[in-house]
């Protein structure tokens, strides 16, 4: 992901097994090294905290995992991802990365159940 071009924006999410991410999930890519005003996902805070740009948990992860009963999840980790799809008239890495799992989701073949 390229934060300078907008694919990872101010609302981010990440893989974290301590917060309930499934252990079989695959982290496909990560965006980090944000500016000094970036914070972890807001749901993690019980009180106001100052930003800490060196915190390794301040990142957006691109994640894929299968679910029981043949389903799967593709999570982009940033609300800004959708706004990046139209770049270069939809001829971009972001559009290609997104189209691969979406094409697979259109296939009627169920995903394998996670171990």
Topology order in helix (H) and strand (E) letters:
EEEHHH
Number of helical regions: 3
Stretches where pLDDT is under 50 for at least 5 consecutive residues are: none
**Would you count the extended β strands for me?**
3
Q: Which structural class is indicated by helix and strand composition?
A: alpha+beta
Strand content of the residues, in percent? 5-15%
Largest sheet: 3 strands, antiparallel
**Rg, Å, rounded:** 15 Å
Helical fraction equals 10-25%
Task: State the separation between the terminal residues, measured CA to CA.
Answer: 29 Å
Read across the widest sheet, the strand sequence of neighbours is: 1-2-3
The pLDDT mean sits at: 84
Structure characteristics:
alpha+beta, three-stranded antiparallel sheet, flat
Describe this structure in words.
There is one protein chain. With 115 residues, the chain is α+β, with helices and mostly antiparallel strands. The protein has helices spanning 81-84, 87-90, 93-106, and strands at 26-31, 60-66, 72-75. It has a domain at 3-82. It contains three helices and three strands; from the N terminus they run E-E-E-H-H-H. Strand 2 (60-66) and strand 3 (72-75) form a beta hairpin. The longest helix is centred in the C-terminal third of the chain and has 14 residues, at 93-106.
């Amino acid at each position: 992901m390229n934060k300078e071009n907008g694919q990872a924006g101010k609302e981010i999410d990440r893989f974290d097994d301590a917060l309930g991410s499934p252990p079989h999930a695959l982290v496909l890519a990560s965006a980090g090294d944000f500016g000094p005003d970036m914070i972890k996902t807001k749901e993690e805070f019980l009180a106001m905290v100052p930003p800490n740009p060196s915190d390794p948990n301040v990142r957006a992860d691109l994640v894929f995992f299968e679910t029981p009963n043949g389903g799967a999840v593709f999570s982009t980790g940033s609300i800004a991802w959708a706004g990046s799809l139209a770049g270069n008239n939809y001829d971009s890495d972001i559009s290609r990365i997104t189209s691969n799992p979406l094409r697979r989701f259109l296939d009627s073949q169920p995903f394998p159940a996670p171990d």
